[in-house]
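seq as requested:
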Amino acid sequence: MAQDVNPSEMVRAALQAIQLVDQNRAAELWDGATPAARKRLGRAEFVNQLAQQRAPLGAPQQRTWISINRQMVTDADVELAGQYLSVEYETRFAGAASKRELVSFHLERDGVWRFSGYVLR
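struct tokens:
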């Protein structure tokens, strides 16, 4: 059963998540992530991977959200199954051409959308 989502709130939540990355506060992002996301990648590894990906790009100059996508995932692992929502941004960085940032959330059993991933491409 799909749950109603306020797109503006999700865009705002995704931006807050990205700003934690911008401010080198990825550990806080990991702390609030879904149990499945925390199991997939340890805290130190998550923080280090993000730092390595983002450092060469420099500071973000301009960020524009492009899309919001919802997806229902069926998986034998109950922690992974369910509704996901992703917000995609196009971001221009000081030291690189534009990149896409994708922030994903998973609707947990308690009815709360929690951070489940960040991808830079």
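The chain has one domain: 7-120.
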